[in-house]
Structures are given as C-alpha cells and as structure tokens.
Design a protein that fits this description.
Radius of gyration: 31 Å
Distance between the termini: 44 Å
Largest sheet: 7 strands, mixed
Bound molecules: adenosine-5'-diphosphate, magnesium ion
Shape: elongated
Number of strands: 25
Strand order of the largest sheet: 13-25-24-23-14-21-22
Number of helices: 26
Helix content: 40-55%
C-alpha cells in the first residue's frame, strides 16, 4: 500500500532525502526515460521516479544532490525542472519563445517550401538544401535523445527515428527524411499539449489554495505570509468569502463553509468553534480565526494532490500489460526490420525496396499509443474523481474497484453516523441511575470510541460531573476498564444475557453493560442514527451488479439484524472483534470474489488493509483513514461509493478501449509496412495520429459528468433512526 504521509522532504536514520520537482516545460514520455537515467548518474542519488503524465519528478538521495545540481542535470537532457512550491506554469515561456516550437515552425516552413519548389519548378538542388536545413533544424533534439538512450543501452523512439532518417537519406529519399523529422516533432508537441491538459486539471486542484495567508501577530496585528511558512499553533484570519489557506481548528467565528474542494459536496457545512476546517475550502459569511494544525505539506488537499500525481505508480494489470508488451514490441520490431532489410535481398529481392520497407517497419515499431494508453486514462480518472472528493490512490485500485463483486460495510460510523446518543439508563441492582451513569462516564471519559462519547455527553446533559479514575485501559472492540475510588469498573460489550438486554437490542439500540468487579450494575442503551442514504446506496450497489452487500460489526446480532433489515443488507457478521473482521473478510472473499471494505478508519484499519480495496469514509477529518485506505471518500456521504465504482468501471473500460485500439493499430500497421503498402511518412503519421487519438480518448474521463440528478431522484426518503423503529 502506498503511504500518503510522507512530507515532501523526509529524513530518517540514514537520512535519505526525497526531493520533489515539477517539470516546467512539458516533458514527453520519451524524455522521462532520459531524465530518470540522467538524474541517476548524479552522486548520492538512490532512486528517481518520473511520473510523466503528471509532470512530477521525485529524487531520492542521501542529501548530496542539491536542487541546483538536479536542475542542471535535467537541463542537459532538455527538461527544465522547478521546485515543488514554485508554480511550474509561471516558468513556462510562451510557445513562440520555446526552442522546440521555433524549431518546428522553422522546419515546417523549410520542408513546405522545399516540396513546393520541387513540385513547381524542378529546382532540385534548392529543394535539397531546404530538406537538409529542415533536418539540421529539427534533428538535433531526437539525435541527442537517441544518443542518451544508446548510452544506457536502450532503444527509444528517437533511436528508431534517427535510424529511419539516416536510412531515408542513404536511399536518396531526402524529402521523406525531412518530412519524418517534422512529423515526429509535430507529434511530440501535440502529445505534450494533450497530456498537458491532464496536468492542468491536477494543477487546478492546487490553485484552490490561496498562496498567502493573514497571520496574527502576538501583538494582535496581521501580516501576510506565504502558506508554506505557516507553522502549527499559529493563528490565521479568514475574511468572509475567502478561501481557507490551510488545515486547522476554528477558534472563533461561525460560518457555512463550502467544502467542495475537498469533499466534492457544495452544500455548505456549518462550522462553529472547535470544528476542523480545511485549506482550499471557501468561507461563507463569517469572519474566522483558525489555529493552524499542521505544516502546509501535510494538509488534506496537499496530500490529495500528491496522491493524484503519483497515481501512475501503483500499476494495475492494464498498465503492466502495456509495459510488458511495449518492452517486447520495440526490440522485436527492430529485429524484424533488420531481417526485412537483409533476408529478402539475399534471396534475390530488390535491396532498395526491402531496405525501404524495413525503415517503415522501424517507424511504426514504437507503439506510442500503447505506452500512453493506460497512464493518461488513469491520471484523468483519478483527477476527475478527486474533484468529486473521491481519492483513488492509483491505477491498481481503480482497476480493483471496478472489479469488486462484494462490498462489506463497517457499521458504526459508516452505515450509521457514528454519533450515538445515550437513550436509556437501566439500573439492574438498585444502584441509583445517576450514580450508574456517573461511574460509567468517568471511566469512558478517556476513551475515543463513539459509544464513549455518547455516554460522556449523556452524563453531562444530565448535569452529572465525572471523576478522575486512577487508571483506565481500552480493550479495542470490547470496551474499557478502570479503577475509580478503588472500585474496579468495566463498561462495554455484555457477555451473558442480562435482563432487558434483548428488549433494548431488538429496538436497534446498542446496549453496553456497566460492571463493578463481577457484578453487573446496569445497562446503558445508546442509539446511533442510520445514515439516511444507506438504503438507497445498498439498492444502487445491487443495481451495479454487486450481489453481496454485507455488514461487519462488533455490535450484537440483534442490533445487526435490525439495521441490516432496514438498509437492505444481504448478509452480516456480528460480535466481531477488530481482528475477527480481518478473518471474516478473508472468508467472504473466498466465497464471493473481490471484496471492498468500507469503514471509517477508526478501528477497522486492519480490515481495510485486508480487503481487495479498502475504502475509508469521511477521510478528510481522519488522518488514519486517509492513510490506510486505498480509496478515500472525503465527504461523510455514502453516495460517493457507487459514484466511485461507476467512475472506476468507466475508467477501466476506457483503459481497455485504449489498449485494444493500440493493439489494433499495431496489427494493421505492421503487415501494411511489410507488404510495402505504407510510405515512411504515412507510417509515422498513422502511428502518431493513433497515439493522439488514444490520449484524447483517455482524457474524455476528465470531463466525465456524474449523473447526479438521476441519483437524487431515486434516493429514498430518510429512514427513521433505529431508536424509533419498533
Ligand atoms: P463496530 O464494529 O460496529 O464499528 P466496534 O468494533 O467499535 O463496533 O465495537 C464493538 C462493540 O464493543 C461495541 O458494540 C461495544 O459493545 C463494545 N465497545 C467497544 N468500545 C467500547 C467503549 N469504549 N465503551 C463501551 N463499549 C465499547
Ligand atoms: Mg467502527
């Protein structure tokens, strides 16, 4: 599982450092291999990752690789890098001042005039000069790239081009040599333009955070500072209508905050002092003071962006297939070209025409479309999902999500709000009810479990004060125990069947026992409100042909049955300890196939990790959930789940289309090249053209619209809370 938590510069015992850069000018996938190779040569560099589609470069080194050196080395292979914080687009010169564009424009002019001259006047020498000028202007870049690849014993697209151009010249096909060079650069430029769209969609997430914040001085004055300089504990001021600069706790002011940047939900969320708020969200009408909680690089939005950019790294089957095929295809075609140029002439064929055919084979032997087919679709889908508040941590999980056959929900905090309220206090041995509750609340005060919160809140609502226990111990999935005034007290899961328990549970309430020593003193019944969208989501999952919608809970079977019946759950397992959930999942997976586990990350992290896809809900407010999940739903809204599954399936279909399309192109071009039906220029045009088509198809996912209206219409009216179900 990939970890989200890494800050952009990380230090451990052996102090390896990981520095992130952005590619300032667009970097094609071809140069990304050159770039990785070049950067690995720097002293002290342990590893280099180039996420070409997102334009992000991560250099792992032992501290010796200075940013300046990295940039200089990158510049040597023609890539300009900027630091992570700098805005890459700001560095980019307008196209008419970039060398590549200028070279392309000039070369096109030369080749066009050459062709015209040739056709109209027959000034062959003049045309020849123009063709060679074209090659001279536009050839150096692929030549250098081919040379770099050669040094690393790699065949690259440029190598193929260089050989083809040299061959065409040797055959005296000067105009074709010139055309090849131009079409090749044109293809590269267009490809970069299109992939740039995927990149700018990620960048648009970044643009949601204002670059500066108003920080409050100790003396009360305000100063404007870059968001990266904000430190935990500092106070920032946000005026009405402004975007929040960073994550923090609201300390004064009230406002409806539009959290769509994070959660994809544009309904404002009411925030009062004490609430967690997030950078990139939009303040409503209140003036707010926020205490900064974490450095900028660790904010939810910054982590989302990093994750989206690195989505290419977690490779799914589609990507691995494309990689493997691409790795075999190019050398195989190279061999084929060598054979085409040598075998038939030895058998008496015409040398010139077979050499020409072998050059055409070379020109089509890079399936650029295949190489781009998967990463472009993955980045587009993941970045689209992020805008809806769905974080998918890589192509692998996108694929798995699409393939899921069963979905298991955790109950507390997932199917229910996880904000239970204390409903009944039942004394079983004559103990005063207030005393019973006070005892329980004193022990629970230290626990973070939602049930504990309900009990403590219930006590304070009834005006009871709690005492400080001598000791407390949490028993995950069971309860808490502690000593208070020398009495040993347990609050938690009942064992045995105390009176009244059956009644409370049949009402859908979760009852916990309060024990003193071995003596059961009473029961506290708590009810958690079912999320109103849960039944509609179960229906929607069934409609998506997910046949098994399941529930895993530590709660009692009777409560589980009541809730399952209301939600429309096919099957459930109750009374599970956190570790039992893992075992249950493994068994369910054997039974039903690929399974997703949906939890809130509170005590279900092991289960999330066991499932084929671990999905965390409400991840914006829980660091653990955001970290352990493969898919994180930022909003506290179950409807995001079917939405994520639909998007994943759509993306997978797109990936399959792209792979199929590129295989089809290969299957068409190779025989055509072999039988001499393609000219060099046609071969290259078809090859580049199909690659562009494939990239454009992948990018359609960026514009994907969710059929939210339909969804809203089929949503059932809210179901009453289990507490009121009889
Ligand atoms: P779920 O699987 O529904 O999320 P948990 O695994 O968190 O539930 O808890 C399972 C059961 O353990 C609860 O229903 C309750 O009976 C008991 N329990 C766990 N922690 C506590 C606690 N702090 N106070 C009281 N009971 C608890
Ligand atoms: Mg739970």
């Amino acid at each position: 599982m990939t970890s989200l938590a890494e800050p952009s510069s990380q230090t451990t015992s052996r102090s390896p450092v990981s520095s992130r850069f952005r590619v300032a000018d667009s970097c094609c996938l071809e140069c990304s291999a050159d770039l990785a190779g070049a950067l690995r040569e720097l002293p002290g560099v342990a590893d280099v990752q180039v996420h070409s589609t997102a334009g992000v470069v991560i250099v792992q080194h032992d501290g010796r690789a200075r940013a300046e050196a990295v940039r200089r080395q990158a510049a040597r292979v023609g890539v300009s890098l900027v630091g992570e914080e700098e805005d890459a687009s700001a560095e980019q010169a307008p196209w008419w001042r970039q060398r590549r564009f200028l070279a392309l424009a000039l070369a096109s002019l030369f080749v066009a005039s050459g062709l015209v001259l040739d056709a109209l006047t027959g000034y062959e020498t003049a045309a020849l000069v123009l063709y060679f000028l074209t090659i001279a202007v536009n050839g150096p870049l692929p030549l250098r790239s081919a040379w770099l690849a050669l040094r690393e014993h790699r065949l690259s697209i440029s190598t193929l081009l260089v050989v083809a151009v040299a061959g065409a010249i040797a055959l005296g096909r000067y105009e074709e040599a010139a055309l090849l060079v131009v079409v090749f650069s044109l293809g590269g430029v267009l490809e970069e333009y299109v992939t740039g769209r995927a990149r700018s969609s990620i960048r648009s997430l970044m643009a949601l955070v204002p670059p500066v914040a108003s920080r409050r001085h100790a003396d009360g004055g305000l100063e404007t500072v870059p968001v990266e300089d904000l430190l935990p504990g500092e106070i920032v001021v946000v005026r009405p209508g402004e975007r929040l600069p960073t994550d923090g706790i609201l300390i004064s002011g009230r406002s409806g905050i539009d959290q769509s940047a994070i959660s994809g939900e544009s309904m404002p969320v009411e925030a009062a002092p004490g609430a967690s708020v997030f950078g990139g969200t939009v303040n409503g009408l209140g003036a707010l003071e926020i205490r900064v909680e974490k450095p900028y690089a660790d904010t939810v939005l910054a982590r989302i962006i990093r994750q989206v950019e690195e989505a290419q790294a977690a490779k799914g089957r589609g990507q691995r297939f494309a990689d493997r095929f691409g790795a075999i295809y190019t050398p195989a075609m190279f061999m084929l070209a060598v054979m085409v140029a040598s075998v038939p002439p030895l058998l008496g064929g015409d040398l010139r025409s077979w050499v020409y055919r072998s050059l055409v084979v070379l020109v089509v032997s890079c399936s650029c479309g295949l190489i781009m087919s998967v990463p472009v679709a993955v980045i587009a889908a993941v970045s689209r999902a992020a805008r809806d508040g769905i974080l998918i941590k890589g192509g692998l999980y996108l694929e798995r999500l699409a393939a899921v056959r069963a979905v298991a929900f955790d109950k507390t905090g997932t199917l229910t709000f996880g904000q239970p309220r204390l409903i009944d206090v039942v004394s079983l041995d004559g103990m005063n009810e207030e005393e019973l509750l006070r005892l329980a609340a004193s022990i629970e005060a230290a626990s973070e479990h939602p049930l504990a919160g309900a009990i403590v809140a219930g006590a304070s609502e009834r005006g009871l004060s709690t005492e400080q226990p001598e000791s407390v111990r949490a028993l995950p999935g069971i309860g808490v125990e502690g000593t208070l005034g020398g009495r040993s007290v347990f609050v938690g899961r009942p064992n045995g069947e105390p009176p009244q328990l059956a009644r409370l549970e049949a009402e859908g309430k979760t009852a916990v026992v309060v024990r003193e020593g071995d003596q059961v003193r009473g029961l506290l019944a708590v009810a958690d409100e079912l999320r109103p969208e849960a039944p509609a989501v179960a229906t929607e999952l069934h409609r998506l042909k997910i046949e098994h919608v399941l529930m895993l809970t530590g709660d009692n079977p009777r409560v589980a049955a009541t809730i399952a019946a209301h939600v429309g759950i096919d099957d459930w397992r109750a009374g599970l300890l956190p570790e039992d959930k893992t075992a249950a999942l493994e068994q369910l997976r054997r039974q039903h196939g690929p399974i997703a586990m949906v939890g809130d990350g509170v005590n279900d992290a092991p289960a999330l990790a066991t499932a084929d896809v671990g999905i965390a809900m409400g991840a914006a407010s829980s660091d653990v959930a955001l970290e352990t999940a493969d898919v994180a739903l930022m909003a506290d809204d179950l409807n995001k789940l079917p939405q994520a599954i639909r998007l994943a399936r759509h993306a997978l279909a797109n990936i399959h289309q792209n792979i199929a399309l590129s295989l089809l192109v290969v299957a068409g071009l190779v025989p055509a090249a072999l039988t001499g039906q393609l000219s060099l220029t046609e071969g290259l045009l078809l090859n580049e053209g199909s690659a562009l088509l494939i990239i454009a198809n992948g990018l359609r996912l960026l514009r994907r619209k969710e059929a939210s209206l339909r969804e809203r219409a089929t949503r059932r009216p809210a179901v009453p809370s289990p507490a009121s179900l009889d």
